């Protein structure tokens, strides 16, 4: 039986009643808290909060795309006609009509057979990642993810004591040969993957690779945790290109998550997880002690927004907004970043840059912030074993938040600073 004196923090101290006078336990934090991984993106975002900065740092939607008029009218209507329900405690799994709407929506995206009992609504996909991590990870478990990969995921996994190993990212998605070499050697608990316009690498995973990945997960018995934040933000190609990995899953090895943060508004905090029933039941239990339920009001809002056709209607315009920003960024990169390489993103929010050898993009951050431009140095996106010098010359730039004019202005300034830095190294 576990007892207070078995807690690691008390081990080695004298047993007995005097223990409470000698130890300073009430003043200490948990091992969990002492090992928490702060987010580098949040740190940059905090540093520039309230300042006049052209920011390519966070993956923020352009705020003018928020459907304020529709949401205002819907919210007023919901509060008037169903206020008691919208303001009341809700079910942990989610608002049932929204579960049904999302099941139908996923069917339209090529993921057939999802029923409401396979779904759970989370307060954003960041919470989805955290909840999934809590039901899958035991301390010391091996977890695989793309490297570079999403720090919100690596942070959540490390917080729970996972051992992380990174899978390199190629132009058509993660290097599955590298993945296979690892899974042949050791059984990971899961592979976290962002197949549609990955954050930060911006690449699209090929359909063949999606199929192959599911085959591997079934053969070597590991979960796939699929995070599809950007699948709807596609600029070219066909919708078949962005059909989730989950669509190829016939054995229940894929836990899929999708957020409305990039397509409606992140302030609503609504995302969904699709998984086998047993998995959603566990997620429901762990969410009970996290936050009980996701806001009833915003769930009803999102449901009405989709059911009344606003969601489908806005996607073409949204894609156009971000495509035009992507194009503006690529034009400015060609102009101001000689010797830098990238794969043109076919969707999503990000360019991933490899700057000339020996560039230290972290050293670029302070002067850039001073000049009013923010970006993310690439090294904070790498996990596991990686080449520090290679990582040091990478950069993530989000084109989602700023206007075309500010993209041109900000990149002209950043390019000037970067070229001065490269010149100083090689000069
Ligand atoms: C890949 C990925 N997953 C999850 C999130 C978190 O999104 P949400 O607002 O739904 O929590 C982001 C946000 O940038 C993201 O890029």
Element layout with pairings:
Elements: H1 19-22, H2 31-34, H3 40-48, E1 54-55, H4 68-86, H5 96-108, E2 119-122, H6 125-136, E3 142-147, H7 151-159, E4 163-170, E5 173-174, H8 176-185, E6 190-193, H9 207-220, E7 223-227, E8 254-259, E9 271-274, H10 277-290, H11 296-307, H12 310-336, E10 350-354, H13 361-370, E11 373-374, E12 376-377, H14 388-392, E13 394-398, H15 404-426
Parallel strand pairs: 1-11, 3-4, 3-6, 6-7, 7-8
Antiparallel strand pairs: 2-9, 4-5, 8-9, 10-13, 12-13
Helix pairs in contact: 4-11, 5-11, 6-7, 6-10, 8-9, 12-15, 13-15
Pyridoxal-5'-phosphate is lined by residues 59, 124-126, 150, 152, 194, 199, 227, 229, 259, 261, 266, 271.
pLDDT below 50 for ≥5 consecutive residues: which ranges? 1-17
Helix content: 40-55%
Structural class label: alpha/beta
The tally of beta strands, per DSSP, is: 13
User: Reading side by side through the largest sheet, how are the strands ordered?
Assistant: 2-9-8-7-6-3-4-5
**What is the CATH domain class of the largest domain?**
Alpha Beta
The CATH architecture assignment of the largest domain turns out to be 3-Layer(aba) Sandwich
What fold name goes in the CATH topology slot of the largest domain? Aspartate Aminotransferase, domain 2
> Can you write the helix and strand succession as a string?
HHHEHHEHEHEEHEHEEEHHHEHEEHEH
Broad shape: globular
Distance between the termini: 67 Å
**Tally of separate helices:** 15
Q: What small molecules accompany the polymer chains?
A: pyridoxal-5'-phosphate
Q: If you average the pLDDT, what whole number results?
A: 92
State the domain count. Answer: 2
Corresponding CATH superfamily of the largest domain = Type I PLP-dependent aspartate aminotransferase-like (Major domain)
The major pleated sheet works out as: 8 strands, mixed
* Beta-strand content: 5-15%
Please tell me how large the radius of gyration is. Answer: 23 Å
């Amino acid at each position: 039986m576990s007892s207070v004196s078995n807690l690691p923090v008390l081990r080695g101290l004298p047993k007995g009643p005097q223990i409470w006078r000698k130890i300073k336990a009430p003043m200490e934090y948990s091992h969990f808290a002492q090992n928490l991984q702060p987010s580098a993106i949040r740190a940059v975002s905090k540093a520039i909060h309230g300042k006049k900065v052209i920011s390519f740092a966070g993956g923020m939607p352009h705020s003018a795309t928020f459907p304020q008029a529709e949401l205002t009218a819907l919210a007023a209507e919901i509060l008037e006609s169903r206020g008691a329900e919208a303001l009341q405690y809700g079910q942990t799994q989610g608002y049932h009509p929204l579960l049904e709407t999302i099941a139908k929506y996923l069917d339209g995206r090529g993921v057939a057979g999802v029923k409401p009992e396979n779904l759970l609504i989370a307060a954003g996909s960041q919470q989805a990642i955290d909840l999934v991590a809590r039901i899958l990870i035991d301390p010391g478990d091996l977890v695989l993810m793309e490297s570079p990969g999403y720090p919100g995921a690596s942070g959540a996994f490390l917080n729970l004591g996972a051992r992380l190993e990174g899978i390199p990212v190629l132009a058509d998605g993660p290097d599955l040969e590298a993945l296979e070499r690892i899974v042949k050697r050791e059984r990971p608990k899961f592979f976290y993957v962002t197949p549609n316009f990955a954050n930060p690498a911006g690449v699209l995973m090929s359909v063949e690779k999606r199929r192959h990945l599911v085959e591997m997960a079934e053969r070597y018995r590991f979960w796939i945790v699929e995070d599809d934040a950007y699948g709807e933000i596609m600029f070219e190609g066909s919708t078949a290109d962005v059909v989730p990995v989950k669509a190829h899953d016939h054995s229940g090895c894929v836990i899929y998550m999708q957020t409305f943060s990039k397509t409606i508004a992140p302030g609503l905090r609504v995302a969904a997880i699709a998984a086998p029933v047993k998995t959603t039941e566990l997620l429901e239990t762990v969410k009970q002690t996290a936050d009980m339920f996701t806001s009833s009001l915003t769930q009803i809002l999102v449901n009405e927004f989709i059911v009344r056709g606003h969601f489908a209607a806005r996607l073409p315009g949204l894609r156009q907004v971000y495509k035009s920003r992507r194009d503006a960024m690529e034009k400015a990169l060609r102009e101001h970043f000689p010797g830098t390489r990238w794969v043109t993103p076919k969707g999503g929010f990000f360019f991933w840059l490899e700057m000339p050898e020996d560039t230290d993009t972290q050293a670029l951050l302070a002067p850039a912030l001073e000049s009013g431009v923010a970006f993310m140095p690439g090294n904070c996106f790498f996990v596991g074993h990686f080449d520090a010098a290679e990582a040091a010359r990478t950069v993530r730039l989000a084109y989602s938040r700023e206007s075309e004019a500010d993209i041109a202005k900000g990149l002209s300034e950043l390019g000037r600073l970067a070229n001065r830095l490269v010149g100083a190294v090689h000069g």
